[in-house]
Amino acid sequence: MTRRGELPLLLGEAFSTSDAHKVGIARSRLRAADLDRPFHGVRARQGGLEGDDGRDEHERRILRLAEHYSHCMASSQFFSHVTAGVIWGMPLPGAVLKAACIDVAVFAPTRSPESSGTRGHQVPVRLAHSQIHGPTGLRVASPASTWAMLGAILRNPYDLIAAGDAVVREPNHVDDNPALATIAQLETAVAAGRRQGVGALRRALPRVRVGSESRPETWTRLILTDNGLPEPVANFEVFCDGVWIARVDLAYPALKIAIEYEGEHHLVDPVQWARDLARYDRLAEAGWRVIRVTKQEVFGDSSTLCARVRRAIAQASR
After folding, report:
1. Which domains does the chain have, with CATH numbers?
2. What is the pLDDT of residues 78-110, one digit of tens each?
3. CB 216, CB 263: distance < 8 Å
4. Residue 3's pLDDT band (boundaries 50, 70, 90)?
5. Neighbouring-strand partners of residue 247
6. Can you tell me the distance from the alpha carbon of 14 to that of 84, in angstroms, rounded to the nearest whole number?
7. How many other CB atoms are found less than 10 A from the CB of residue 265?
């Protein structure tokens, strides 16, 4: 039994005011200070953005707002651009994620949404497809359509390629999720017609790979190749005498050179750090040289990274 002033749990974390009225919630209760008003006609229970799902606070905020907006969303609308990228789990730079508004689109000739807190888009039918995102139930642009939309937003070509890598990433193990789309589907989305950023998309497409598992891995691969070094193999499985040793981020298998990106979580998680050290020992015993790469070398001054890899290749080639 719900006590006076309490909201029934069936309303969920966020709900429309019309749904609240249907279960007998008074208008005065919906004006109470313990409820947020993220969008017109929507109320949300107050709460933080806690989570251990691997997403940062900006991604969780966007997901939370998208869920809130879904309670007042017209049937003709769907999430697009950056918001869709977050829903699909594409790696996006922090500067893009800090935007205050969420992206809501409609197909032409319907007029683009103009709700407070949203960035409205009118999309020609030929340039996108929408679908339901299974895990959240949100209506969203398809993965390939979303990537094509990001061509006008992601100014750094490495970020656009990293987002493409995430879309076409193929599973490495039986419990991994299937790829969101294929490279052929990305090609179809780019060829669908003229759009903002189509030039960037066309330049990025040939550099998209199915094996990259993270934005730093993609950036590392592109930095090396753009500095005249051979393209490494992504997520290479290392075996020695038929026994599996490790899977490395990037590799030059013929030279037994592994390149491993050291994310910040490796340094603060003692269990992960111990696993990393044991893995590096196994690789060394199998005759592999491991080049450990830091965030500063990838997203800052990459000259040291290129020099280290070039030196290792020269030494292994003697």
Report:
1. 9-45 (no CATH), 57-207 (no CATH), 215-316 (3.40.960.10)
2. 999 999 999 999 999 999 999 879 999 999 999
3. yes
4. very low
5. 237
6. 20
7. 10
Q: Closest Cα to residue 201, out of 284, 293, 127? A: 127
The structure tokens listed for 241 are 């005498």
92 neighbors 85 (Cβ within 8 angstroms)? yes
Q: Quick one: which H or E segment has residue 309? A: helix 303-316
E strand or H helix at 44, and its extent?
strand 42-45
Specify the DSSP class assigned to residue 175.
T
Q: What is the CA radius of gyration of the chain?
A: 23
Report the distance separating Cα 34 and Cα 37, nearest Å.
Answer: 10
Q: How far is Cα 222 from Cα 231, in angstroms, rounded to an integer?
A: 8
For residue 187, give the nearest of 170, 168, 169 by alpha carbon.
168
Burial class of residue 42 (count of CB atoms within 10 Å of its CB; 0-12, 13-18, 19+): buried
Question: How far apart are alpha carbons 272 and 236 in whole angstroms?
Answer: 19
Q: What is the side-by-side order of every strand in the sheet holding 14-16?
A: 14-16, 42-45, 35-36
Please state, in angstroms and as integers, the Cα–Cα distance from residue 284 to each residue in 56, 274, 275, 291, following that order.
Answer: 34, 15, 14, 11
pTM exceeds cut of 0.85: yes
Closest to 159 (Cα-Cα) out of 57, 65, 90, 231: 90
Given a cut of 70, is residue 2 above it in pLDDT?
Answer: no
- Counting every residue written for the chain, the total comes to 318
In the chain, the amino acid numbered 244 is W
Q: What DSSP state is assigned to residue 33?
A: T
Calculate mean pLDDT across residues 293-316: 96
How many whole angstroms separate alpha carbon 213 and alpha carbon 121?
30
Closest CA to 250 of 277, 276, 216, 279: 216
